[in-house]
Amino acid sequence: MYAIELDDFDIEQIAQSGQCFRINKTGDNRWTIIAFSRKLNVFQFGTHCGFDCSEDEFLEIWYDYFDLQTDYSKIKQMVKNTGDNYLINAVNFGYGVRVLRQDIWEMVVSYIISQQNNITRIKNIIERICQPFSDKFPTAIDLQNYTILDFQNLGLGYRAKFLFEMVQNVVNKKIILENLETMPYDDLIQYLKQFNGIGDKVANCIALFGLHKTEAFPIDVWMRRIINTKYSGNFDYKQFGKFAGIIQQYMFFYERCGMKK
DNA sequence: CTGCAGGCCCTTA
DNA sequence: TAAGGGCCTGCA
Q1: Predicted confidence (pLDDT) at residue A58 exceeds the cutoff of 90
Q2: Domain A2-93 grouped into CATH 3.30.310.260
Q3: Is strand C within 7 Å of residue A196 (CB)?
């Protein structure tokens, strides 16, 4: 168990911020995360955090995964300087939200599945996809012999064709995921949108969660609702530059979880 | 048992 | 460029 004190970090908030489909609460103050072919048990009480792995593994894998190299207090301060009360409330409420650095291929698959879909069903589909691979997320090669019907049988519905095509594109090197990282944000979005099943929203999710392009600002129905009700339909996210995506996470989490409690 | 959920694609005008 | 209908399916 590797123990550490962490500020601006709340695993429960991260799990509920909608960016990850493979974090599950397993008990009081306990969660299990599956990422990068590893399973990690996490304990958190206040700022006391425990990670069920060696220090070496934590520093090698999970430090980066949790985006611990980024100072979120600076982002919060910047938000406070705007004087925008809605954003300030959102940041105060979601004090422990962070943007995880997740695997690009997993994000491509997950967000193709996510369209016009609910969270429970998305998680169940992803679980069924991973089940034959001992819960590790399968590579495109792993899935290359899957047919559209196979994916339909896993519950993807009309999205089965999109995933089938994407698997083939990766296997045939028609798209090389490793090359996406260096693409400028605008080019990246245009490029991703060429593929069937990837529109503006999904492309921005892939850019933000899979490539940590933090200028990405995915607008889904929740974000649209905020923009319409709090900002009269107009929200200039570009003013936040590279912080837009992180601010999006605060807004999204506040909208989804803020009023319940 | 309806209605819909973290959109996208295609067709019209 | 904008607007609108159809789409799989299981969960609320």
Answers
A1: yes
A2: yes
A3: no
Q: Which chain B positions have some atom within 7 A of a protein CB?
A: 4-10
CA distances from A91 to A74, A126, A150, A215, A261 (A): 12, 30, 42, 18, 16
Contacts of A14 (CB under 8 A, 6+ apart): A20, A23, A66, A96, A97, A98, A100
Q: What is the pTM of this model?
A: 0.97
Are domains A2-93 and A104-211 of this chain identical in fold?
Answer: no
Average pLDDT in the A79-96 region?
97
A182-215 tens-digit pLDDT: 999 999 999 999 999 999 999 999 999 999 999 9
The answer to whether A121 CB sits below 7 Å from nucleic acid chain C is yes
The answer on pLDDT for A261 being more than 70 is no
A116 touches strand C (CB under 7 A): yes
Query: Which nt is closest to the CA of A154, judged by C1'?
Result: C9
Nucleotide nearest to A118 (CA to C1'): B5
